[in-house]
Fold these 4 entries.
Entry 1:
Amino acid sequence: MTSSLDTHPSSLNFWAVIPAAGIGKRMGSEIPKQYLELNGRAIILHTLDRLLAHPSVSGAVVALSRHDGWWEHLDTRYDKPVQRVEGGVERCHSVLNALHELSAYADDTDWVLVHDAARPCLTHADLDNLMSTLAQDEMGGLLAVPVRDTMKRAEPAGRVIDTVEREHLWHALTPQMFRLGQLRHALEQALEAEQMVTDEASAMEYVGYQPLLVAGSASNIKITRTEDLALAEFYLQQQETHQCV
């Protein structure tokens, strides 16, 4: 069951957007990775739980493949609205479709938190930090963690070309948090110019913004390979034990 967003007024400030139209080829699974089971529930449900449990998040829009046959079998009943929209070929198309849907109910000045469907270990503390840090920011930003490993640049055959200075390098995470109107405009401009941006921050950069990096937890992993499931299960158990969700 999916709730309708029109049951809530547009004056609410924070909305979650979850692009989930991908099939996760690297998992080697017969079903998209967001529907794989983790601690007895689909990964995407853990992700929704984390976002919708935050008191400042008013609802969510989930962008799914036109041929998605798994979502309808999940129990998606929440006490906040969850709306399904059709996703696109790439992440940027899915997010833009979700923003167009959301624009019918929310204000352009509302904040949008775009979060990967396969990041189920997001903590309440990271959400709090992201929201409070960016609340008065004109550009928005994203959760990220500084690069700690030595970085190598390689040629196509895999041989090292050089070592990249890791100072000031960050791993981009999600959520990525921007004003609804600004992000919609940025994605529209990038796509019109045939720029296939890989995340929302890249779209904002394309139109001249400098998103703020907000330090987050390394436990906010994205499940992309089979071995990531065990690590995510460990993080979820640790978070539940220490009640740090």
Note: DSSP finds six helices and eleven strands in the chain.
Entry 2:
Amino acid sequence: MDGLLCYCRQGFEPELAAELTERAAQAGIAGYARASRNDGYAVFASDDARIASALRWRELVFARQKLALIAELRGLDPKDRIAPMLEAMRGRGRFGDAWVEHPDSDAAKPLAGLARSFGNALRPALRKAGLLTEKENPKLPRLHVTFVDGDHAFLAVADPADSAPWPLGIPRLKLLPDAPSRSALKLEEAFLVLLDAREREALLKPGMAAADLGAAPGGWTWVLTRHGIRVSSIDNGPLRQHVLDTGLVTHLREDGFHWQPPRPLDWMVCDMVEQPRRVAERMAAWFREGWCRHAVFNLKLPMKKRWDETRLCLDLFAQKAGKPLTARAKQLYHDREEITVFATPRQ
């Protein structure tokens, strides 16, 4: 069975299905998407074996995780779910790890106990059948068993270089007691998901200068200061005092949509609540005018036609920026009705 299994935020299955369908068509790959509202996943069925390599995880906006399908198993006998799985994996070679999961949805969360216990039984059986290495090997493909019901599961494979490295595609981040707001987790997750390890090391250095547009109460500013970055925090609202006390923050009570820096900055971040097209155009102006080298910003999505609006805003940003940029966008775990974009000069 060729095709993809992708996880997403509950309620955004139609957006993920529309994205997979459009991106596959652009790659010249025939197929169709299957998704139901609130399931937490979508399937793109295709007979074209190129599908997994044509749609890259980093390039998908609404997919938390991207997996290549092996099989969909229905009517599993609770007394022996393992045998049909081993049969479906015959001739697949060895896996470097095996994860047993469930979608991040209200309906599937009760399956967490089954996933844990089944994983403990499955791994020894896989090793006995020669399908799983004795120790975790991150260089080999990773097996995913995704239960969507007690008798219904997908078998899929993750390429470690082209998939999320976290179970369910969700990084485990903890909100620290001194974080000014929960929005701090959005920027932390953005740096983890949208930048690779090399980029984080090169682009987040002490002594860099940044602007935080719409900064109050200071969650994103606080994250930047934890990297030793000096921040101009732009907002008419107040910042938390301990953020100002870092000595790295200058609070300017101005409108983030009109303020511009007196000199070029390394970073600009923006989490302002505004129409997404207006944000996209303003973010493009920052690159066009050379006011920043790198940026992370959020685009708040409408209630309807959210994939269409996403595509339109990303295209608008690219057109108006006036220079070649690499832009990556994701609906992060800590996002809600929005997506987060990282932009940097194209190498």
Note: The mean pLDDT is 95.
Entry 3:
Amino acid sequence: MSNTPSQSQLHNLAQDIKQWGAELGFDSIGICGVDLRAHEPLLQSWLDAGFHGQMEYMARHGLMRARPGELLPGTLRVISARINYMPEDARCATTLEDPTLGYISRYALGRDYHKVVRKKLKLLAERLQQALPELKLNYRPFVDSAPILERPLAEQAGLGWIGKHTLLLNQQQGSLFFIGELLIDLPLPMDAPANPECGKCTACIKACPTGAIVAPYQLDARRCISYLTIEHAGPIPPELRSAIGNRIYGCDDCQLICPWNRYAPVTQESDFSPRQQLLQPELLELFSWSESEFLKVTEGSPIRRIGFERWQRNLAVALGNAPYQPRIIEALEQRQAVSSELVKEHVDWALEQQKLKKDQEQVENRQKARLIRWIKKALPFHA
């Protein structure tokens, strides 16, 4: 690139970029280089262990993820951006506590973040180009959409540190945010990386319902509820179904338990406001949707990408985990004859769980009735 700005100009540009980012709605902007060689052995060992599950694209691109320059030849810097997504009225605990409701990861309650964040990154790049009319900048925005190690880059850019749950954490902002990157061929000054602050805390490891965080900083995606309900296309392993509870799209447990998220601010981005049909939905209502209803409600939502079949699969598991209700058995039986083989397998499992709970409830009711009869007979004055 000819006509490269002076160091003084580059310094001022870096400050301008952060100001422009704030004006576009980003909560923080950081700048780093492209050297991720230290992460290559970690990535390779993770892949060798098979922790990526069915995410074949992870293995297909391999170590390219640690080499941003291969995505955009000539890249000198990465502008890393962060934007909060937690809505003001998230109702996390009340939804998780009610097994008749479906819990959707809070990031997916509003509009698809890929579109929202990428648009902002593109506007940021255009504004930078306008500030340098004498140069032809080479840049590319990414939002969870390319083979690139986003969290290590964000860590190097000072936006936070990678926590023991493998997500990015910020001391003032927690972890409930999206990140995106703008690769650019401009030698901007770099920010200092963030210092790790997890200390001895292991709350996220202990809170994981399926034990997916197999060690600090190591996630076995094959056990992760987010992977199982979103990325995984086949049957959910039977031994993990009960632990999924009422989580029908993703899981936030490791984040919700994290002490740093006590300080997590609510989002200022209206596009991330929850759709009311998804905030505290009844499982039976969701299970009654036709495919056209599913597509209509999830239009512009990240949920749509899993498709109707996986949606029904996830709901069947949640209904199997719900307390016994005749209405649930009726709804499941109605689906048996019209479901795909994948969904039917999970419907059959859910019916088995519901019938076991029914039998258990009948046993408990009989025991309770016997106890009451005994009290009335043995203690007539206190019956």
Note: Residues 7-88+111-184 form one domain.
Entry 4:
Amino acid sequence: MNQIEQYSQLIRKYLADQASKEEQELLVGLMDDPVFLQAWEKVWRENSYDAQPATYPDPHRMLENIMADPRITTAASTLQKTTDGHFNLRRSWWQVAAVFLAFCGAVLWGYYNFYTVDRLPKEQLSKVSIVPGSDKAIIILENGKQIDLSLLRADTVLDQGEYLITKDNEGQISYSLKDNLTSINNIVYNTIVTPRGGEYSLKMADGSLVQLNAGSKIKYPVKFDAKLRLVQLEGEAYFEVAKMDNKGKRVPFIVQSGAQKLEVLGTHFNIRSFGDHIVTTLVEGKVKLSFADATLKEQLLTPNDQVIFDQNSKRVKKEQVDPFYSLAWKNGNFAFDNASIEAVMEEVARWYDVEISYQDQLQGQHFSGTISRYENIDKLLKTISFAGGVHFERKGRRIYVLN
């Protein structure tokens, strides 16, 4: 976990009123750290807007404005600016916390009233911090309660009555029944949702592993039925399905994605279901695909088979592929083989949580190559530009694609 994500978790806990006194004191002590300010901006963006605006105010500049506000000057009289532009904090944590809360409110107020893309100079926009995605997700319980998984400490156990949810040292979520229970009276479903710029790993009750990509959602029972294992997927996930038998018979594992149903006859596969296209890539074992439209022929996949199902045109295309490209995301990389620039930038937008605008008519530019998903955004764009025959201009969190 990098430093920005560590700071982000601390800020999330503070804003959720879950931080201890020691953590609050640590947070205040970090307020002149530029990395901490990047983390604050990141958390604010994640939690303030459903639709992300094109740019955001500079936290350093906004802090200076707040320090000049007469309502705060008295309370922060011992907050002194140094020659390098940072601040020395010489007050107890609770006094500075009040300034920090004023800072939070002023940032939101300042955005709505003063800052737009057109008013910010180009050089300032290009410096707006954009960080790669990280482990973050929301779990939605059967009763509708939502839990921010990034706020849970490692080795946390959540008691849900009949079953337990555990977050281990690696951040993975897993399920188990209590010792005195062998079954759950009713089928109980949970849902995990990853935002843009997030991913998460889940171990289901049968031992099956699921790695969920950014902007995705999976609904699953906390305890599977003895006759059928059914999950519902929107977005992209990689599955390693565990074997499960009942009285000597295999219990089927089904993944429902839109108008496609996948039945697992083996173990490892990837499903990508953004928009109208559902792409299923088999790594190991066998799977069978069927479709809501009964006129479409069932597809039996063996290793390295890939099926692309267009839900609009109701067309099914099957071919042999190198699964390396479909699985690169779960291994921390972007990997493309003659992919269109539009397809490449769709991946970038989802992972870095940015907006993409196409300023010119593109002439079929394509890109091939492998890049780390944790690369600096500007270095990533330079690499794509060099190999893909396009140019980029970044203004805050909006990236313009040019010929």
Note: The CA atoms of residues 342 and 366 lie 9 Å apart.
